[in-house]
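re: ur question from the group chat, yeah i did fold both. here u go
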Amino acid sequence: MKYFFLSDGWTIGRVWGAEGLWNEMAWRRQPKIEQMDLCLIEPEERMWLYRVEDAVLMVEVKPLAPEPGEPAAKNIGQVVLKRLISGDQVVERLCAAGATCQLGGAIVEPTGTNEQI
């Protein structure tokens, strides 16, 4: 399995495998991409962990369309994630100094104290 973090307000677009752009007709299914119940909390941002199958090489992500009357918060149209990370790299990121995580309803602070939301 491979992983990536995706910020709130962003969604998954196109997906690439070894044969190029993911073809649902050829594979007879959509790629397996699952949002996990774990996120990193940083100032002004919450980044959710996603798990993808090994056949996925790249993932396009793009901001969600703003609600009517809401200004567009980001000027970025889309981003292609070319370096998906391993499980070991996820653990390293979660253990990084200052990382605050949310698992289910519990927030885990770097000091080890837990807070229920």
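okk and heres the other one u asked abt
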Amino acid sequence: MPWEIDIVSQQVALPVNTGLLQDAVASVLRQEQVVSAIVSITIVDNATIHRINREHLQHDYPTDVISFLLGFTDSELPDHEPDDDPAESFSELSEADSEETAADATSDDAADPTVSELPAAGAAVEGEIIASAEMAAQMAPEGQWSADAELALYVVHGLLHLCGYDDLTPADRSLMKTREILAMNSLGFNPVYAEEPVGE
């Protein structure tokens, strides 16, 4: 399958395991049955992703991952063009992702959808993922795993957005989390999702 994966690190907080990130991207692309992909991954620090988050999403705080969808073409929408406004194509790992545990997120239907239910099956996808290694190092203890694994999760999440998944509703978050878990499991990791504090 013609996949082009480019990874650049622009930070010093964490030595980047590019092999793991390449494996993470390949895992998602296989899982989602993407036939062609050009994916650019830039690893940055909190200050840089804070600036990008503020400028493009009007969120004045650092986040973990942001993604740009630059192109998406499948057999049903051959003339689909990228959005003119990149801000509309941005997505980030939502704070609401902490609302459910991994156990709540998995179901037989979501874990094993038919090809027709995979939004990027047969598609050509092009996009950019920006992830914070500094945030990964900070959040890894909460996930009970390494900073490398946490960063891989950010990349998986960002790529799933490029593949057509969203996390705006509880049902969407549950499905997306299930796909994250499948991809991370294939890499030998078992994500732990913290419960959101009561009352928030």
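fwiw on the second one: The chain has a mean pLDDT of 83. Residues 3-186 form a domain with the Collagenase (Catalytic Domain) fold (CATH 3.40.390.30). idk if thats what u expected
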